[in-house]
Amino acid sequence: MAKLKAQPSEPPPPELAPENKFSDKLRAPDSFTVSFELVPGRGPRGKNVEWILDFAQQVAKNPGLIDCLSLTDNVGGNVKISPDVLGYELREMGIDAMIHFSCKDKNRNFIVSRALQLERLGIHNILCLTGDAPIEGYKGQAKPTFDVDSVVLSDMLRAMNEGLPDERTPGGRTPPTHFNIGAVVSPFKRLEAELMTQYYKLHRKVRFGAQFIVSQLGYDSRKVDELARYMRLQPDLKDVPLMGNVYILTKGVAQAMHNNFVPGCVVTKELLGRCQEWSRDKATGKRRFLEMAAQQVAMLRGLDYRGVHLGGFNLKFDDVKFVIELSRELEEDWRTFVREVAFAQENEFYYFQRDPETGLNLDAPVDRSKTGAGGLHLGFRLTDALHHLIFEPGTKTFAAVQSAAREIDKSPSLRHLVAVAEKYAKQVTNDCRECGDCSLPDLAFLCPESQCGKFLRNGPCGGTAQGQCEVHPEVPCIYVRAYERLKAVGKEEWLRDMPLITRDWALDHQSSWLNFYLGRDHQHAPTPWPKPEEEGGGAAKPKPAH
Predict the structure, then answer these.
(1) Would residue 308 count as lying in a domain?
(2) Which of 28, 77, 195, 414 could hold 135 in an S-S bridge, CB 3.0 to 4.6 Å?
(3) Which residues contact 87 (CB under 8 A, 6 or more apart)?
């Protein structure tokens, strides 16, 4: 009896120019776009999946209410079902999906592979995230990857949209993808160094590919206004669509955020007290939380945000519908809610001067020459001067050392000797991890491999709290330290203007000194996957901050 050949079950390929209603509405003038965040659970089936699909069915039955459903990616560092498969199911229901794409557990090759899969599935709305550090794993905590970060991820997806160079075919390129690339920024930071490095990284995310921005969670109307105002006044940011993040609180979620169990989300002691008070009234408590969320959405409309990214725990569709519809009714009165949702942190830094009439901001920035941490940072200044003397191209010292490096590189034994000498010298000063592709001069002589919990080379993650590292709360974030060092010499804006930095793993355990002098490290390598018009050359890169 002849065997029947199994027919593969696969989704149909998307159109060459696929329709993306979410993206189109986000960029349409005088529109306000609504997305809602869904959190996949651990199992491939069960109550969580049933809830997500039921919620999606309600969205499909109520057109014009919610424009996009957003699916998180192993949120909180926990293991969940991949959002990709659920995103495809939403697409089959006629609903635009936004996939959260984090870097914590994927190297750059797997990122490309996953992105190609999403393109094949017809899922084009991507929210680029560095991601929360893993906190669990099979038979022990999983190894964090963080091969790249959200800035590099934005650049990778941008390059894929233009077609990646195909090294197997001279002059060939992979078929272009159609990603609508989103990124996140957090204005809800207490310290100047935290806030400014978030804004600097925002510039870099947009420069390297981000096409829309979603804010992190916070409940301070003045900071909500500040972010929109900041972007509106920056030439490179003013045309980028901005969505505000509104999370419908409960007492339990508020307590978790207040305790910093949800990295980057800020609930102050005052707001926690209000949530506890509301929760004691079983009859009206839930409605109070929904009404506060509606007030926040109305403020976003009034402040000219292009949309809202809604979220909440254990919500019914009717709860979300109530918030959206009430926000429309409250839109004309949004200014009356400014002081109702103004939960500032103690001694919080604001980029703009306060407007006493509205409680929001004026267009005039504060004078940052009179703010922030001072100090001589003598060690940094001495190291910077020594680096300038030895590693600055064009000097006599540089030419002599580069000539010596060429000769040393010809001998394996001498190469090894230099690598060992560099290792022990840098272990004393920076706990060197022998990456062979050193970023010390880029980050004010602070090592991201040994001093950043996520090994980030392109700016801070959003998980810092009070200037402390998300992964190692007992130590300060290296970007807070780098900002303060650079500000002491008037060059903190280097963190905004520096080029894209990617580590080349082919150089691991080699001498970064030799790799620098011989043009093999990230400071000399061409930008990964250049735009077509840049091939064969590429734009000149800024020099490291000296």
Answers:
(1) yes
(2) 77
(3) 71, 97, 99, 118, 121, 123
| Phi, psi angle pair for 428, to nearest 5° | -65, -40
pLDDT of residue 373: 63
CA pseudo-torsion sign 477, 479, 482, 486? negative
- Identify whether the C-beta of residue 275 lies closer than 8 Å to the C-beta of residue 249: yes
- CA quadruple 373, 189, 145, 498: dihedral, nearest 10: -60
Cα gap 13→436, rounded to integer Å: 42
pLDDT at 169: 72
* Domain coverage including residue 240: 21-134+142-165+172-354
Q: Which amino acid, residue 287?
A: R
8-state DSSP, 539: P
3-state SS, one letter per residue, for 440-500: CCCCCCCCHHHHCCCCCCCCCCCCCECCECCCCCCCECHHHHHHHHHHHCCCCCHHHHCCC
Q: Which CATH number characterizes residue 311's domain?
A: 3.20.20.220
pLDDT at residue 27 in the model: 95
CA 34 – CA 387 distance, rounded (Å): 50
Alpha-carbon gap, residue 351 to 368, rounded angstroms: 8
User: For residue 125, is pLDDT > 80?
Assistant: yes
372 within some domain: no
Flag whether pLDDT at 499 surpasses 90.
yes
Q: CA nearest 309: which of 212, 375, 378?
A: 212
In this predicted model, which residue has the larger pLDDT, 543 or 87? Answer: 87
DSSP string, 41-95: -SSSSSHHHHHHHHHHHHHHHSTTT--EEEE-SSGGG-----HHHHHHHHHHTT-
